[in-house]
Amino acid sequence: MNRKTFLQKSTAAAGILLLPKLLADDVVMTVTGPIRPADMKFTLEHEHVLADFIGAKGYSRDRYNADEVFARALPFLKDVKQRGCVTFIDCSPAYLGRDVLLFKRLAEATGLNFITNTGYYGAVGEKFLPPQVYTETSEQIAARWIAEFRNGIEGTGIKPGFIKTSVDNAPLTEAQRKVVDSAALTHLATGLTIAIHTGNGEAAKEELAILKARGVSPQARIWVHAQNETDKAYHVEAAQNKSWVAFDGVNPETVNVNIAYLQNMKAHKLLDNVLVSQDSGWYNVGEPNGGNYKDYNCIFTQFIPALKANGFTASEIDKIFIANPAKAFAIRVRKF
Ligand SMILES: [Zn+2]
Q1: Does the annotation list 187 as a binding residue?
Q2: Which range is the signal sequence, renumbered to this chain (predicted)?
Q3: What distance in Å separates the CA atoms of residue 59 and residue 334, rounded to the nearest whole number?
Q4: Lower Cβ count inside 10 Å, N or C end of the chain?
Q5: Is 197 assigned to a binding site?
Q6: Exposure of 131 by Cβ count < 10 A (0-12 exposed, 13-18 middle, 19+ buried)?
């Protein structure tokens, strides 16, 4: 019996005949369970519902009232869904505003596909890193993240749909290198895509070198906040290496600069590797009623009209907001 036949027989015996194919190459994980990439449709791939900037040391769910956050976020999410958003990806990592039970309530109340993450955030001078990063190996840290994917986050059964980590400008610190390395190991074990908040273009290159050393393809990496690097040559090089390049800071003040970045990528025939989002939201813990919550509408009200006015076709716009996120967030091991 070859391996394939064995797998077919053993899974059929377990009564889950269709599951292996689904898990092999066709799944995106939301807080309410797996969906097919084709069901993601219009996706905002980097947004936030909740953020607490106190740092890992002081982080606690007791610092906010989840019902208040729910009530504040709900109308913004309903609004953007009504405008055409189908999938909402929340990029707040652990110790910075990841509250998966809150996210599940919001997913159920809005009908949005809502995706959360596993991983640790190493940027801002490592303020948001928990102490185990300094005492554990990459393998031990990865084991924690892999367990979240296999068993669910914090006993909820809710699973992450990607890995979120972060670094400042190059050179990366030892702890930042370790979380990227842990992300590489987690990717190999789970197929979860690795989104890395990145200070600058040199840091983005360092990340790929760490992934390569573990045998992970650049196709598994999303360069989060590529717009922070103003030298477009870095964007082009990363995309030519097949990394995802995310221009994810679209807001009314940055429409034109992001259009210019996308025009450059289009001129280099690299639109297959770009992602676009807003990094908008969120209930800011510690401010009265969450402070100034920014809506998620700019891509619909200003950015897509600006893309059209600058010659982007309907199929190019669909690629950026539908086809690319479906490929980027499909759960699949991508080896170098
Ligand atoms: Zn963000």
Answers
A1: no
A2: 1-24
A3: 34
A4: N
A5: yes
A6: exposed
